[in-house]
Amino acid sequence: IVTIIAMVVPEVQHEERSASQLMQVHRGTRLSLHSDNKSYELGSCVEDMLEQYGAQQFEFWKQKTLSDPGDSCACDNILLRLQDSFSSRSSSLKLDIRLEQEAYEIIVDPEQKQIEIRAISALGIFNGLQTMFQLVAEHTGAVFSSYIFDFPHHEWRGLHLDVGRHFQTVDFVKKYIDLMALHKYNRFHWHLTEDQGWRIEMQQFPELCDIAAFRDVRVESKHQKNQIEHEYYCEKCANPKKRFQGNYGGFYTQEEIKDVIQYAKVRHIEVIPEIDLPGHCLAVLTAYPELGCTGGPYRVACSWGIFDDVLCPAKEETFEFVEKCLDELCSLFPSKYFHIGGDECRKTRWKVCPGCQDTIKRLGIEDEEALQCYFITRVAKLLYEKFDKILVGWDEILEGNLPSSDHVVVMAWRDWDYAVKAAAKGLKVIGCPISHCYFDFIQTNEDNEPGAFWSKIVLDLERVYSYTPVEGIQPELLLGGQANVWTEYMPCSHAVEYMTFPRACVLAERLWKQEGTKPFAQYLGQLNQHCSNVLDPLDVSYCKKGL
């Protein structure tokens, strides 16, 4: 018999159990909503969640894993109760009031033949259900009489997906979101534009779909050691090489975007869009060459890397384009955060562009880095004042002495040092350093192991498990962390799953329960069980190496 804690990833914060009583979750167990006044007030939200996600997911687990209870004590009911506060048993535990909406209690009561999930919000109920879904995935389904109080350590628990390099279907994006929800991630960072493709329907700029969304792949690629793009991954693909013949690409219609946002909302996941500016814009420039310093001609990138051609910050047409794009996209994405990239913007063209050099002189700024700061600051002001959005950018937005702002968030990807620098300015930060959070990196040193290796980092499970924020960042400025899934070497959904899982399970552990985690060798057994009982039934093509 396995306790609740040992069956849940991420592990719960607190459990009190009695080894003397056991209860079996079985195929006849039902989900129900408590009928008191508090539950009635918020009941529509919970009922919507159950109708669109919870009941369906519970039925899936029952069909896949559960047997009849036999002679053991049977759990007849899993009761969901919304209440004004948590029980007195939770009072001794340190719960950040900012995170109490995500907290929940579970009471396993064999005498009543019932498991009760309590929370003060539908979000808390949802998190409790994720724990229950993993619990019933265990073949025995037997649990001790227990009291659980659980809550997250970090507010921002993000998982990123780059669809610019390799496009992914709506169905796969939804599966990705389901797997996020199961592991209590709450921010889906959707990287939607790249040098290699623009992935959103734009009514004001149709050429972004007609031209910028597609590339000629016949001249691709910059293969390097250990980077085998399709044969290694695509045993499940009927014709893995077909996608590499002729033009490659695609985009999401605005209706599809709305569908994904709603799908994520029911699962209590916020969708954060990213439109990369002013670098990584070759696809944009191919469609609208007048936005570059040279005027082109340009070509949607057919290889990976960093390119010299970027948006020209000296042209008002550039800012008019950005504003019109934001006008369309901010009405589409309800999140208060909007990611504008800001990374890897080469200054090669700016250094020789007469307009850029005149702008530097006119503004009285020092150099091209300060010119980038001018661009970022102007876009941040636009986002906040016109669209009531908070700008999120990669840590390069600090270049040129970015001023302190309550409506700018820095994602520190190169090193924790950039998070410390941002926090020293009073900026909020998200920690996603390449040392622990870049899931495109190889997972072993084997000769044919797929993935990127430019950093020389082998990002195995133990390394991910060691993710810990550095000292020097005020707690109120550290929003949390996330994993980044760059897809240069992930040509299909199976490749994305292989590179993302189970590393995403491990990072979820560190973001949810930072303190008091067990030694890695002990945790690995729990993770192995989780993969067998949870990922296998969901048909996830995860990496089994290192388990």
TrEMBL record:
Name of the protein in its database record: beta-N-acetylhexosaminidase
Catalytic site: 344 (proton donor)
InterPro entries from the UniProt entry: Beta_hexosaminidase_sua/sub, GH, Glyco_hydro_20_cat, Hex-like_dom2, HEX_bac_N
Pfam family, one: Glyco_hydro_20b
Highest taxon above the source species: Eukaryota
GO-annotated cellular components: membrane
Keywords: Glycosidase, Hydrolase
Family: Belongs to the glycosyl hydrolase 20 family.
